[in-house]
Fold each of these.
Amino acid sequence: VQLQASGGGLAQAGGSLRLSCAASGGTFSRYDVAWFRQELGNEREFVAAIRWNNNGKYYATSVEGRFTLSRDTAKKTVYLQMNSLKPEDTAVYYCAARSGGILSTLRERDHYAYWGQGTLVTVSS
């Protein structure tokens, strides 16, 4: 499966952005899809993920209550709605997908085989 991330840009603190992760190839509805982000000089960290089997959604503590995942199976797209943005949300955001996998590894980047190219989110104070 190939992933295309888009929707990044510049936002003010308190503002919103919506990221999209569009897939081609594969049976997208049977993939867990996650978002990770990476600040310059830091490791790539987990942001949020949606499970393929029950659409269960999981978030990092730092974004809980501000970010929301959704999936449009017909469009093969997963969205990350980001509200109440903070300057510390500034990073390159990557979407990733995996086929199968246990819940306990959902937040681990090494368990994702497919990655999009990243989209830059910049939040100004």
Amino acid sequence: HVQLVESGGGSVQAGGSLRLSCVASRSLYSGACVGWLRQAPGKEREGVAAIDSDGIASYADPVKGRFTISEDSAEHAVYLQMNALQPEDTAMYYCALGYRFGGYCQLQEDYYTSWGQGTQVTVS
């Protein structure tokens, strides 16, 4: 059972940047996906970005051009660089491990089986 630990959340002003980190307790299997999903108060959890073991990334439309997901397999880590943050980006951000479907990483939470504890991002 893999454990995921997120860090890097915080409070920033609109237009600012944050970099989230997700470190796994072991290396990921081929075909695995690591996703970032977020949940704002009163809203459903939504996928933000995901990356597979080949480095192929997927993004949700609201963050395209602003967020970048990357991985460092040697460190068992996945990062989410968030630029041009807006108040609507305020949420708890979760790192999750899942699997590809249809040949690429999905952003729906149904495809993720292991979750981190989350890190809060607040944009004012």
Amino acid sequence: QLQASGGGLVQAGGSLRLSCAASGRTFSTYALGWFRQAPGKEREFVASIGWGGRRTYYADSVKGRFTISRDNAKNTFYLQMNSLKPEDTAVYYCTAPIYGLGTDPSKYYGMDYWGKGTQVTVSS
């Protein structure tokens, strides 16, 4: 199972750090990722990371502001979100494992496990 946490209410320009802790099994040898869903919109890709942490991919809308990372020893991965904007407001979901990791998230598959989601609200 995956458990996402760290969401909250923040002003525009602020920062939040999301965490996704895995339990019951290890995902240390798998790619992982974050997606988000805003009200009235479809779920969209945010960021993904390879098992070793060296390969990372981001949606254009968050590139340069968000950083995905992982700690395999803790079976946990993170999403550091800086310079937050009101349009970042959404429920954020973590997922694993991701197969087909690369620059095109439409080619990702697997993603059998999803966290419950954590709400991020950015006020203007």
